[in-house]
Structure formats: structure tokens, C-alpha cells
Amino acid sequence: MAERSGFRSAFRRWRADRPFWGGVLLALGGAEILLTMKASMKVVLHVGMQGLAGYLLPALMLLLGLLILFNPAQRLFYSITGVLVSLGSWPTSNLGGFFVGLLLGVAGSCLAFGWLPDQEPRRRRQRKWQRQRRADGVAAAVVE
Q1: Which residues does 30 contact at the CB level (< 8 Å), separation at least 6?
Q2: H or E segment to which residue 117 belongs
Q3: Can you tell me whether residue 110 is helix, strand or coil?
Q4: Which residues touch 59 (CB under 8 Å, ≥6 apart)?
Q5: Residue 40: left if φ>0, alpha if ψ -120 to 50, beta else—which one?
Q6: Is 108 exposed, middle or buried (0-12, 13-18, 19+ CB in 10 A)?
Q7: Which residues in the chain land under pLDDT 70?
Q8: Model pTM greater than 0.85?
């Protein structure tokens, strides 16, 4: 049981150090657009460059979402590129995955762009942490 809570706290720390939801939404948008593409690769090669862009742009969205998660230092470049690629998927990939992937990609890119790494915690969370520290201190004092 202790290992599980250790993993959860480690994941929370990892998630807090990066624009997690922005990267996840951008990657989900790219995956959704890729899944809505119905044509086989034979048809894409026959259609030409326009058909190939229908696969390249969502794949690039998926890659940019993962890069935001694992390289948050370059989040500004990745998020701006993610917005442009998401908007470019509208004419190339079934209206951006029937607008769902397009909206997920734009929302994720905006979240990643607006994320600040050294932001102060919200007051509500700060109060919760203070209460938890006090309770842990009282519990530690009772044990000793």
C-alpha cells in the first residue's frame, strides 16, 4: 500500500512540474483525428500530398503533445506549433476530426502556452496543505 501512495505522490510531483493537461489534450486531439481517418494507405498514396497531410498533421499533433509533457522547457514553441497544426487539420483531416480533435488540440495548446512553471499555489490549496501539515504535526507529536 505504501508503494502505491509513493507512486501517486511521485506522479503528482512530476505532473506539477509541467503543463500536463495541455500536453494530454493536444495528444488526445491528434489521436482522435488519426482514428477518424478512414482511408487506407493505398488511397492516401493515390490521392497524393493532400491525403498525406491528413495523416502527417495529426501525427505531428500527437508528437507535440508528448514533447510538451516530456520537455516542458520548450513549451512555448511546441504550443504555438500545436495551435497552427491543429488549425491546419481542419481542411486536411475531415474537418479536424469532426471538430473534436481540432478543439482538443487548440485547447491543449492554449493551456500549455499559458502554463507558468514558478506559479504560487492557489490559496485554497495552500490552506489545505497548511491544514494537512498541522494535522501531520499533531499526529507526529502524539506518536512521540
Answers
A1: 58, 59, 60, 61, 62, 63, 64, 65, 101, 105
A2: none
A3: helix
A4: 30, 34
A5: beta
A6: buried
A7: 1-4, 38-50, 120-122, 125-126, 137-144
A8: no
- What separation in angstroms does the CA of 131 have from each of 8, 21, 60, 108, 135? 20, 27, 44, 33, 6
How does DSSP assign 48-86, residue by residue?
-HHHHHHHHHHHHHHHHHHHHHH-GGGHHHHHHHHHHHH
Q: Amino acid identity, residue 15?
A: R
Neighbour count for residue 46 (Cβ, 10 Å): 10
Sign of the four-CA dihedral 27, 31, 37, 41? positive
Please state the length of the chain: 144
Which residue is associated with the grid cell 483525428? 33
Question: One-letter amino acid identity for 62?
Answer: L
State residue 35's pLDDT score.
Answer: 85
The whole-angstrom separation of Cα 118 and Cα 43 is: 48
C-alpha cell at 15: 505532473
